[in-house]
């Protein structure tokens, strides 16, 4: 049964957590769109497509938003309770810090499991859908926008210029259409006026031109006898295909090879398969190099025993005739060049194989590191809030940003050095957790002992000491 103390703490925690989670998620989603905004603008995307994209991006950001929101909300909750002396009242009644942290610890464990579920089950699907949609959006041409007095070249094979366009965006005048082809020169069409409209199925743009001329020249580039044709017309209809302006859905199979699209159950056998493949590649490379060292089987092992003094004076090579020496040198050089080429290829293949293995391992560890980050940042936030005893968004937000930036920097650096092979993958991916866990334990010990570190009194004493030191230094400078 949930006791009144647990209800009190949970009520104080839920509001700040929901608010900080939504704000964190919003910031992370906006970070994605700021990065890709240039490729999305002007594509004529409908609201449903944009909403789907936001949903996929938000799903991928949940595991990163949870640690930040847990850190900030736990600092705010315990800081607010400390500022209103609720923590003092609870401690004076004999309830230790670990006891009233218990309900939030259970909530944090549940949220860590939620973060793992998102990272393992939902994010691979969201990444697959998001990357496929992003690819489709990027390759889609900008929305059709033919402006008066400007050459429009977004249609494949055509350049269009409209002299004037009425407010209804349909009646046009002084139209020039340049048709690109592989012939001697491009075809040209001019008209005094016309009507621009969409076909009923929205698949084509129709130009109905009036009072114009069409100019064509037929012939080959190496033939001087060409035929130039000028055709006049009172009315001429021209259709332009708009299929390239619509976003089409690409097959998702081409994106499934990325390790970000796999779960832990899929990553583990994939990593084993990569190791087996790398072992087979090493065996193949060794077999490819073996023929170049066939002379090892025929080397005269008795030469040193039979001629101990001769070996000191000259090598076996020097005992050969001059004509044989030149042939031997040429064969050795050819063999060395072949060996070098094979080793270069083997080195590149091995480097690529190791990079692929590291990528898969990084994604495997990522499923767990963000869940562990929820627990570690809560372990920092809860005692830190009880120490600083300050609610609101001022001091809690400042400390939350400091610790989250530390976590993010070490997490990014660890992933980068793991990807480059500087350190083992597990060491790089768990670097931020290994650094912040001792900090959390330290703060927990200080909070259990009612330490005043980071409290207002400590900062007041530090400021007072600085004020005493500054006048003395000022007097020394003046003297």
Automatic annotation (TrEMBL):
Primary localization: membrane
Entry annotated with the keyword Transmembrane helix: yes
Entry-linked InterPro entries: LptG/LptF_permease
Keywords: Cell membrane, Coiled coil, Membrane, Transmembrane, Transmembrane helix
Chain ranges passing through the membrane: 12-34, 54-79, 100-119, 368-388, 395-413, 425-445
A single Gene Ontology CC term: ATP-binding cassette (ABC) transporter complex
Coiled-coil portions: 329-363
Localization per Swiss-Prot or TrEMBL: Cell membrane
Domain of life (superkingdom): Bacteria
GO biological process: lipopolysaccharide transport
Membrane topology designation: Multi-pass membrane protein
Claim: Transcription regulation is one of the keywords in the record: no
The protein's name in its UniProt record: YjgP/YjgQ family permease
Organism: Rhizosphaericola mali
